[in-house]
Amino acid sequence: MSVLIFLDQSEGHIKKNSLEAASYGAKVAEMLNTTAEGIVLGTIKDELAGLGKYGLKKIHTVKNEVLNNFDDAVFTYIMAEAAKNIDAKVIIFSNNFNGRAIAPRLSVRLKAGLVSGALALPDLSNGFVVKKNVFSGKAFANVSIKSDIKIISLNANAYKITEGEGTAETVELNVDIPQAKVKVKEVNKVLGEVPLSEAEIVVSGGRGLKGPENWQIVTDLAKALGAATSCSRPVSDSDWRPHHEHVGQTGLTISPNLYIAIGISGAIQHLAGVNRSKTIVVINKDPEAPFFKAADYGIVGDAFEVVPKITEAIKKLNGAQH
Amino acid sequence: MKILVCISKTPDTTAKIAFTDNNTKFAESGVQFILNPYDETYSLVRAIELKEADPSIVLHLINVGGADSDPIIRKALALGGDEAFRVNSDSQDSFYIASQIAEVAKQNNYDLIFTGKETIDYNGSSIGGMIAELLGLPFISLATKFTLNATAATVNREIEGGEEVDEVTLPVVVSCQKGVAVQRIPNMRGIMGARTKPLKVIEPVNADTLTTVDSFELPPPKAGVKLVAADNPEELVRLLHEEAKVF
After folding, report:
1. Are strands A9-10 and B139-149 parallel, antiparallel or unpaired?
2. Using one digit for the tens of pLDDT, what is the confidence trace for A74-85?
3. Among A221, A227, A200, A318, which residue's Cα sits nearest to residue A263?
4. Domain residue spans in chain A?
């Protein structure tokens, strides 16, 4: 028996959310009195033995560069082979885009119950129960997995990366790679930015900023914090910001440690995308803005005056800490 | 060409969330139910557009639910679709639901199966992938654009910080989100027509339930916003650093 963790990679580097999944998986393995092993597909530039510090004993690799292109059916096939190979009873994914494409397929392939969007370690006191968000962040469900093999896809930022001692053994997995039926023709990524789904801090702008030419205060604050930027739906619909920045019910769902909303009123549809954030700060000149009811901290004031001063204060803090 | 659109009944976005029966059931009393927004606005509308472009396309809708889903199914038919199936069963888990849908799909040979990105009540985001695996079909998740080219499709799929453009030969399962289509309001003709479109109720097949919800919980109530004066933004930074410890 073992715990198998899928380590997602991009451009040869293991994604931050996968390191969270690895740390989580290592803890689950400890709770089950077994070992945690990782699997990574494609060409990896990271040094794999070092992944041992997250608690992984072994890393299975399939180095074929055709796997640098994600394909959910191909990856599911390989995951199933690996899982059978090491008698994996619990399989962990990050609940990111790729995880959400593989985990359901693998669930069927292995007849393994799946909890997607897990928030915490499983509760083993009465079966195997995993907590997840439901009702778009307005409640939690404690889901019991009944099957012999269990799959968990972990929400970003739900479990802290834990580093210890140890090196991992690397083993090349001998497996046929099926032909991908989906052809990836183009990949358009905005590189060099903090990916929104991984960001611990997000600075977000809404219609209150009046126009795309005013976004400097948002990006300056984000830069000072090392944060990602996001926006509300009207901003995205008006093409003030790229569509992948839209957070909300019909956009991306994020759960950073800190979400700073500037000039966003806080409609329910927007909240559905961000209410899982640990700390919410609202800056809005309208004291009646509904967002203040969902906020932990707030400033009622003119964003154009307040936000640059916040940025200055953060730069000062960063300076003082060095 | 045959298209199947999977639709789900969910509580309205603004519904108050409460639980009964010792926190094991969602409290339905007083709650307004709607068509899952991702299904209504994205997957269903796109399928209807494809049929409008090619009227020879047969468009079916499918729901797994009890009789209380029928009004929602009729609302969907009012937007479009030739006929609907309802598998007469309370929703069990995603695996169970996907198994029911796959069973119907097996008998009908669909070229294209659409789901929404997720349901706004369970947020599982699993049905599409499960149906694809049960049918041995390719699956494209989180589509932001879908174009049909005869017997193939070009689909934009969201990835971290951007998107990829995929091509796939039909049949395929696709889960849809914002970008795929734009919301429509059913017109009077659609609403009248929906009343006579076939809504076939079929019995479920035996299928496993791999997960169950033991209990629900509400989040602890928020303490209430701590307001900082607009002329003292440095205080906010101090609070975030020392109290919230977020940086």
Report:
1. unpaired
2. 999 999 999 999
3. A221
4. 2-172, 201-320
